[in-house]
Amino acid sequence: MRTVPGSNQRYNFYCATNPPVPLIAVSCGWLERSQLVAPSETGVRQKYITVIFHTQEWERTVGFIRTASGYPELSAQLARDALQFSTKPQSSRTPTSPGGDVPSKMFAKSTQTASSTVAGDNFSLANDATVPVYDARKVKSLDFHAALPNLSKTLPLYTGGEIPQGSFVMVGYTMTIYRANNGNWTLGCNIQWVILIGSPED
């Protein structure tokens, strides 16, 4: 993790390369909600998806973040067992999403939003940016090692509007850990792209 200059304490995840480059984490799971066509009009104005991980995927992700960051416990935007991946927030309005049981002791529900300083870095897409969603539903075979660095050349864009609830998706995101206004160390998952692998109507 590298310290981000500014008045607020925050760190961004980088790959241990020479030179270091931003880490694009990749996770997959069941899509609980999609708000990518237009920013949310309730709570924080931003685009986002919420994803419920497979149990094993969740444990691996939590283990990686704990090991890489050194923080045994973090707050996060987590509701109904679904983790939120979002663009930059436009304001500090309080989210209105309902809470739920937290599936891991590492993450705790947080009603705090990212500060304007955190939102100002280039690790996040702008709140009204187009989040690319790629459609892999009709692809018979996909080498992710080759496809992920060249998604725009490998997969067509999804043009069906919001991704249907219950779809199986893969999401690419950067990660920031910051000190929220309430003093909690908080994980921000900054969406970069989504791959739609399967949907309920398939």
TrEMBL record:
Segments for region (Disordered): 85-104
Compositional bias segments (type: Polar residues): 85-97
Name of protein: Uncharacterized protein
Lineage: Eukaryota, Fungi, Dikarya, Basidiomycota, Agaricomycotina
